[in-house]
Amino acid sequence: MSINLGRARAFMASHARVLDQRRFEAVTTDSDAARKAIIHGLDAYRNPDGGYGWGLEPDLRAPESQPGGAQHALEALADAGPATSPHTAALLDWLDSVTLPDGGLPFALPIGDPAACAPFWVQADPSESSLQITAAVATQAYRTACWDEAVRDHPWLAMATRYCFDAIRKIDEGPFAYVLSFALQFLDIAADTHPEARDLLDHLGRFVPKNGALAVVGGTEGETLHLLDYAPEPGRPIRGLLDPQAVSDDLDRLELGQRQDGGWVVDFTGYSAAASLEWRGYTTVGAITVLRMNGR
């Protein structure tokens, strides 16, 4: 099996937003110019308060800065490494300003105009901490911290880490698929600097099925988080929880997922025409990144 990179490139040119085209270029060419262009591309989504909005999270199209926007901004910044942004410290300062007293982030902050925003963002309680979004943002912060000391040394990351450890330790039954997925990703990267993360990985490992597929209860029919969504990189601690054959099978699934138009699809609902299109470009970059890092 193999993917058709030429068709993927054509798909990105005809379907994807500029930011994801730049991310695609960076992962397929290893170009310093492309990595720097990712950083500049984020400026369109940045607000004066240091946070990010404006649809950087495709199903959250409101202009206000949001934790979901911070997650995607940090993910792009991690992809841009070793190039760094002059705005990362301001983003971490913004995260610190909206973090709740227990150290967690709310799933979403109030939204002025809910047009084209998914209801789970609009209806979120801004006074309640969310392990799902805190772990998701902190994971990308750790990835960015590999290149950027402004993130590595910021007190917000230590505070969010402690919140996540405490919340994960309290989990005693199978959590919602997205909570489990983001918590696993967080523990996997936090294990590089925090030994207790490895014990907590074992704690959550009992909720991971043998094939690694996490069904999204209440989602679109058939919506599933797959093994490679939360364990994409070989040699990582999280791979120790997983059956090697299940990893190989999921790589086959992902490789076979390229469509005739060159892109990959998602199995969840997009909440606007723009989001549905943007998710495909975002997902195509992710698929190619995972396949390349696994030697496919």
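(the above was protein one; protein two follows)
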Amino acid sequence: MSITRRTLLTTAAGAAVAASASTSTAASAATPDGADQASVTRTLRQAADYAVAKLRAVAPGVTAFPVGTKFEKWTYSQNGDWVGGFWPGQLWLAWLHSGEEQFKTLALASAEKLAPRRNDTGTHDLGFLFYPSWVTAWRLTGDEKWKAGAVQAASSLIKRYNPAGGFIRAWGALGDPNNAGRVIMDTMMNLDLLAFASAQTQDPQYLEIAVAHAKTAQKNFLRPDGSTPHVFDFDPVTGAPIGPNTVQGYSPTSCWSRGQAWGVYGFTTIHRRTGDAEFLTTARRLADFALSRLTPDHVPVWDYLAPQAPNDVKDASAGVIMACGLLDLAELTHRPHYRESALRILTAVSRTCLTTKSTRAEASVARCTRNRPAEDGVEVSLPYADYYLLEGILRVLDRRKADRAIDLSSV
């Protein structure tokens, strides 16, 4: 069966398989470090409750999109920058966890503010913007306007596809020659918006572009040891590969931990949408490298191969993102050590990286690093860390709630 036809089938069977896998995985999973399961569950539930309490206190006064903290207070973007989807996404997850209607109301209002970005062809980050906000809104409310808007965003995203090189351009306006051949690992996380669009419209082109991009990234980013660079450059005219590079990592030969996490999660997700075994193998190789570089505290450093690693500044966001991908990997490969590793990371972040000791902090997760080379946001709080912490915990505590928001089914 072709990738396209297999993916465009109704997801009911896939959802049933995923639910079955979840049940068996949850029943058989060992707890990290032999810890008592009740203790792990209690720690994660307390962390989720803390995150929801923080949102309960802060969210009613938020009128824009948090992008990061300065002196523990959120700074904002009016249009959402590339992170705008994570704020309404957090609010949706808080609603699912708590049942409090105010979070649903706030999530809808926040998501609505992203409406102008549906037609933004100047960024690859439309998946980050519209999946946790508009796709989730449609999944939780059934209102067709959210689905239509997400499909429109996917239509904007595929305009950035370069057929000569088989990749989605990361940065710059479509007519701008600067960065025209630049591809980044982060884009793997924007591909699920395209899979969603194909599934909803029965138009295969969205998924075909997603698969082409993933295969290009797989071929060019992956090193023999399973590490990856942040950036890979191509000739935008011929599509010929030029070589690795970086912006947020230490160097073209290092391994930026958040990019590695995007890869673990992203390749696992494109496998779930296509059934392509090679994507799952790639996700495992990325995960195995990252896990081999984790320090005993189970919180990633900002770059696994920077000269001062492992004794370097942390990026808890890389940990919680990877934990979500690892939970997928455990289900798909039937290898419980991936789930154990995810639980260790989520538990470690919940015990050592939350802002519980601060009376002024507006975010939940501290010890995140946005862009170390630019000295921009070193060990601060970031909206995607708060989002993926809640997502990861919901996957563990009540997978059905996470599935309602983000679709954990597989073909």
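Reviewer note on protein two: Confidence is low (pLDDT under 50) at residues 1-33.
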